Amino acid sequence: MCTSVLQRLTAVSVLCLAGGMSGAAQAEDWQYSVQPYLWLPTINTTFRFSAPAGSSAPESEVGPNDWLSNLQMLVMLNGEARKGDWSIISDVVYLSFAGEKSQVRSIDFNADGAHNRYSSSLDAGSNTTFKGLEWTLAGSKVVARNRADTFEVLGGVRYFGLKATADWALNASVSGPAGTSSFPANGSISERVDLWNAIAGVRGDIQLGAGNWHVPYYLDFGVGPDAQSWQAMLGLGYRFKWGSANFAYRHIAYDQPSDKLVQNLSFSGPAFGASFKF
Questions:
Q1: Distance CA 213, CA 235 (A)
Q2: Between 220 and 66, where is the model more confident?
Q3: Which of 45, 41, 35 is nearest to 92 (CA)?
Q4: pLDDT, tens digit, for every residue of 196-207?
């Protein structure tokens, strides 16, 4: 079955590149769908907190951690408005994790504006709390069809707002260069970042045989002034008269420059949802 799916996806991609269409787009009224879903990601990241001049700040490593033990709240909703081959897509994800087990990897001593980063092996039990809101808004267009299969290109924007708090516990305090400052054995620090990306990507749907099973897929890449990101999803769905039920695996990753808060943040895990059409 995997070989068949790959062959059909390749055929749809070739049609797209050749500009071919197997059927003219029909004039239709607007159609809408709403999909609440549950995403259960594991988390893997490093937060590099900023150290003001004359002080110090930690670099905190989180994960990969399981989603369940420290999940406080989640809201996930996807919506789409479609007219013919054109669609407007919106996706909202809010995640709140508390007390994620973490490790202070290093300490940044910003003495007189000169950053001196020292490795730390004194971690005695640190935790990181973070809350994130992601919102994607994009438009897409079907550029190729092959029977019930579709291939779309998309473009839009993605926002990601994140607040991270690190609570650390070390076996001892750490002295800075030449005794300029000291990093305490216990403490807490918080930092917030707002990231905007322009995104471009593809998505589509592959019909499995003559029944109601289908394979939705999605891929995008995002660039912005402060971060890069990418997102991928591959699923399996079953269509009903009212909509469809879907299972998917979803991955999203963010990365900022080495002196910024977010270092290689990724969420990966299964998602379950139901799409209702009206």
A1: 11
A2: 220
A3: 35
A4: 999 999 999 999
| Cβ-based neighbour number of residue 184 at 10 Å | 11
Q: Report how far residue 45's alpha carbon sits from residue 60's, in angstroms, rounded to the nearest whole number.
A: 8
**CA-CA distances (angstroms) from residue 213 to 9, 181, 183, 210?**
15, 63, 57, 8
What does each C-alpha distance from 27 to 24, 31, 154, 241 come to in angstroms?
A: 9, 12, 20, 21
Q: What is the model's pLDDT at position 96?
A: 85
Cα angle 63, 64, 67 (rounded to 5 degrees) comes to 95
Establish how many alpha carbons lie within 13 A of residue 19's alpha carbon, considering only the half-sphere containing its beta carbon. 0
Longest dimension (CA), the chain: 74
The pLDDT tens digits of the residues spanning 9-44 come to: 444 443 333 444 334 444 478 999 999 998 888 888
DSSP states of 47-64 as a string?
EE----TTEEEEEEEEEE
- Measured in residues, the chain has a length of 278
**β-bridge pairing 86-111 and 114-119:** antiparallel
Residue 42 in 3-state DSSP? strand
Element of type H or E holding 1: none
Which helix H or strand E contains 185, and what residues bound it? none
Phi, psi of 8 (to 5 degrees): -75, -35
Phi-psi region of 124 (alpha: psi -120 to 50; beta: other; left: phi over 0): alpha
- DSSP assignment of 69-119 equals TTEEEEEEEEEEEEETTEEEEEEEEEEEEEEEEEEEEEEEEEETTEEEEEE
CA distances from 35 to 32, 90, 133, 193 (A): 10, 10, 18, 28
Q: Could you give the CA distance from residue 6 to residue 224 in angstroms, rounded to a whole number? A: 32
